[in-house]
Amino acid sequence: MARAYLSLGSNLGDRLAHLRSAIRILEERGIVTVRASHVYETAPVGPVQQGAFLNAVVEVETTLPPVGLLAFAAAVEKALGRERQQRWGPRTLDIDLLLYEDRQVDLPFLQIPHPCMHERRFVLLPLTELEPEIQIPGVGKARDCLAALDEAEQPATKCEPLLHSGA
Questions:
Q1: Is the distance from CB of 58 to CB of 97 less than 8 angstroms?
Q2: 2-10 and 53-62 strand pairing
Q3: Which structural domain, as residue segments, surrounds residue 83?
Q4: Is 15 helix (H, G, I), strand (E, B) or coil?
Q5: pLDDT per position in the chain (167 positions), as tens?
Q6: Helices (H), the chain
Q7: Residue 166 lies inside a defined structural domain of this protein
Q8: Would residue 6 count as lying in a domain?
Q9: How many CB atoms within 10 Å of residue 46?
């Protein structure tokens, strides 16, 4: 099985329930959740005015190849009500494939590592919570990327664990 890291985000409806439902659906299809970060509440990125996000990162094991995992993540988003109407707009669920083993992929519809992950506190905080020394291929250590960001420009508040104990 391959190890991958997924970023989960939601800023519509019951945000925490959307994140937890995403994990449940992934697991129902054989994707194993190894670990999950705490949930962080963060301001939205981009030009669209909208509510705050809840974000988390999950470490998973899967037999799916990167393109298959991305396609399944999109299906989970859709199953939980995601409508792609506006770039960077509000959403019930967003799942990004951040890392897949130590692979680098550059396709028109999939880039691994995720091309903006090293610039986003809402990704790096939960990722380094799970794996402080993790390397972003072609970039460097995630913790060094996090240290380079201005906390005042990208504030994040640590909330509760994404998964309940024993989950």
A1: no
A2: antiparallel
A3: 2-161
A4: helix
A5: 999 999 999 999 999 999 999 999 999 999 999 999 999 999 888 777 789 999 999 999 999 999 999 999 999 989 888 776 666 668 889 999 999 999 999 999 999 999 999 999 999 999 999 999 999 999 999 999 999 998 888 889 999 999 875 44
A6: 15-28, 66-79, 121-130, 142-148
A7: no
A8: yes
A9: 10
8 Å CB contact between 145 and 118: yes
Task: Establish whether 91 is a catalytic residue.
Answer: yes
To the query of whether residue 144 is one of the catalytic residues in this protein, the response is no
Set 96, 102, 106, 143: catalytic member:
96
Residue 107 lies in a domain: yes
Q: Which of 3, 15, 87, 91 is catalytic?
A: 91
Catalytic residue among 82, 102, 103, 143: 82
> For position 31, which CATH number holds?
3.30.70.560
Give the chain's domain count: 1
Which one is catalytic: 15, 20, 94, 120?
A: 94
Please name the residues in contact with 65: beta carbons below 8 A apart, sequence gap of 6 or more.
Answer: 2
**Is 109 a member of any domain?**
yes
